[in-house]
Design brief:
There is one protein chain. The protein is globular and about 70 Å long. Helix content is 45%, strand content 15%. It has three domains: 47 residues, Transferase, Pyrimidine Nucleoside Phosphorylase, Chain A, domain 3; 250 residues, Nucleoside phosphorylase/phosphoribosyltransferase catalytic domain (Pyrimidine Nucleoside Phosphorylase, Chain A, domain 2, 3-Layer(aba) Sandwich), CATH 3.40.1030.10; 86 residues, Alpha-Beta Complex (Aldehyde Oxidoreductase, domain 3), CATH 3.90.1170. The chain has a six-stranded mixed sheet, with helices on both faces. A four-stranded antiparallel sheet has the order 6-9-11-7. By secondary structure, the chain is of the alpha/beta class. Its cofactor is K(+). It catalyses: uridine + phosphate = alpha-D-ribose 1-phosphate + uracil; thymidine + phosphate = 2-deoxy-alpha-D-ribose 1-phosphate + thymine; 2'-deoxyuridine + phosphate = 2-deoxy-alpha-D-ribose 1-phosphate + uracil.
Length: 436
Amino acid sequence: MRMVDLIEKKKNSEALSEAEISFIVEGFTHGTIPDYQMAAWLMAVCFAGMNEDETAWLTHEMAHSGDVLDLSMISGPTVDKHSTGGVGDKTTLIVAPLAAALGMYVAKMSGRGLSHTGGTIDKLESIQAFETERTRDAFMEQVSTHGVAVVGQSEGLAPADKKMYALRDVTGTVASLPLIASSIMSKKIASGARHIVLDVKVGDGAFMNTLDDARALAKAMVEIGAKLGRSVCAVLSDMDQPLGRAIGNALEVRESIDVLRGGGPADLRDLSVYLTAKLVQLVEGGTLDDATKRVSHALATGAALKKFKEMVISQGGVWGDDEIYPEMHAAPVVRTITMSSAGYLSSIPARALGTIAMQLGAGREEKTSSIDHRVGLILFKKAGDEVRVGDEFAEIHAATEEDADRAALQLAVWMKTSSHAFAKRPLILDEINAFG
């Protein structure tokens, strides 16, 4: 078997066999296939595409190119939830303990944030002494005992995907549906869970800007899961404006705890309940209404908050018995911005606000950038809300007065109002599962 022949085959829009895809992934991972040949094959995939079988085989080979977490020792349903990334998206911090409170087991490996999107691991590391790196034995013991653990992705997890993505990033081959879908799902398959809910973000602050593109990605990922023996559902949710009100790591942890205490922003709470209810359906079947009632009960009784606190303490985080929140540092500069006009807020674009928070230090412009867990934004108003002169619009949490000045000027651009109200886009836009 020769790589040049497989490049030609894909260039001519011919389907590859399972053995041929295995040859490509194994050869590239171990260095016997050079970057220039792999880049040529990736470009051919961008133009010619891959069928469902090819995409599933590629995902399987990437997942098994390194460590694969074996969760068979856990005597209960293993679940996972993945988001394609957005601004203010802290649902993992809510969904994971909610699922655990309902008898599911969440052995979750999460990533860090990049650019305007946040990362779950960055959020959790804002908690004093919280450990996001655990030995496999300690990780599995915590999941078995408490039902939930969230750690950083292992370096040995899907190494073929890491190597392939690095090459795609510099060769203009990122924007390929089968390559995107297999990249995401390879890490989910390697993480070992049998039931997976995918939160596919749609809109200004999302990787997928249009509903049609998001549907295509969701469908591809659900089909991969079905072919590889996983129970998968994809929920398409709005990301035209930030989710919740907090943008920034420590601020988002506090807001997540507010939801776990029965409060918090309605959009964040509703989406978290919906995603968890879909996990219940994947595991147990039944109606969405019944599943939602069970999830809402776990939230109302404090069972989910208890699980979250167990997880924080088990992973070394500092959380006093009588404290509402775990120990986290606060930004030294806090400034409130107020409205200078009345009407209805026209737009709160997720990407722009995520970028402002990133420039305050809450996110990374590059993978090697350091972040400041204390800083970020809190929004008091959302797009479509009616406002009056003097109403609080946002709160800036900054490291310096100069940073706060810059953020205030940037926020002023998005304080535009209209004399007419407009219909808000639904939070849940669509849903795709293995049955259509």
